[in-house]
Write a structure and sequence with these properties.
By secondary structure, the chain is mainly alpha-helical. It contains six helices and three strands; from the N terminus they run αααβααββα. A hairpin with a 2-residue loop joins β2 and β3. The longest helix has 15 residues.
C-alpha cells in the first residue's frame, strides 16, 4: 500500500500563508546554489575527507593514507570541496595543507550526524 497525500476537497488558497511563505523564500539563484552544495555532500568519500579535516588540517598524502585511496583520487575530491567553498588550503614549502573552510562546515557536519543518529 503506497502513501497518498491528502488533497483539498475544494480549492481555497490561503493567501496570507502563501504570501508569508513567499516573502521568506530565497531567490531561485540561492536555491540552486544550495542544491549544488547539498550534492557535494552526496558522496561518501567527500564526507570522509571532511571528517578527516574536522579533526585536523592534513595534506593529500595523509588523507590518502588514512582513507586507503590514491593521492589522485583525494586531490580530485579536494578540488570539488574547494570549488564549493567547503575546504581551504595553505602552502608550507612544497606541501599543501587542507582544512575546513569555516565554522559553517563544522556545523553542517555536526547537525547532519545529529540528525541521522537521532531516534
Amino acid at each position: 500500500m503506497s502513501f497518498q497525500p491528502e488533497t483539498c476537497d475544494y480549492l481555497h488558497v490561503h493567501n496570507e500563508i502563501v504570501n508569508d511563505v513567499n516573502r521568506h523564500m530565497p531567490s531561485e539563484e540561492i536555491l540552486f546554489d544550495l542544491s549544488e552544495l547539498f550534492k557535494v555532500f552526496g558522496d561518501s568519500t567527500r564526507i570522509r575527507i571532511l571528517y578527516c579535516l574536522f579533526v585536523s588540517e592534513m595534506c593529500v598524502c595523509d588523507i590518502a593514507t588514512l582513507l586507503n585511496m590514491t593521492q589522485s583520487a583525494i586531490s580530485h575530491q579536494l578540488s570539488v570541496l574547494k570549488r564549493n567553498k567547503l575546504v581551504k588550503s595553505r602552502r608550507e614549502g612544497k606541501t599543501v595543507f587542507y582544512s575546513l573552510a569555516d565554522s559553517h562546515v563544522r556545523t553542517m557536519l555536526d547537525q547532519g550526524v545529529e540528525h541521522v543518529t537521532e531516534e
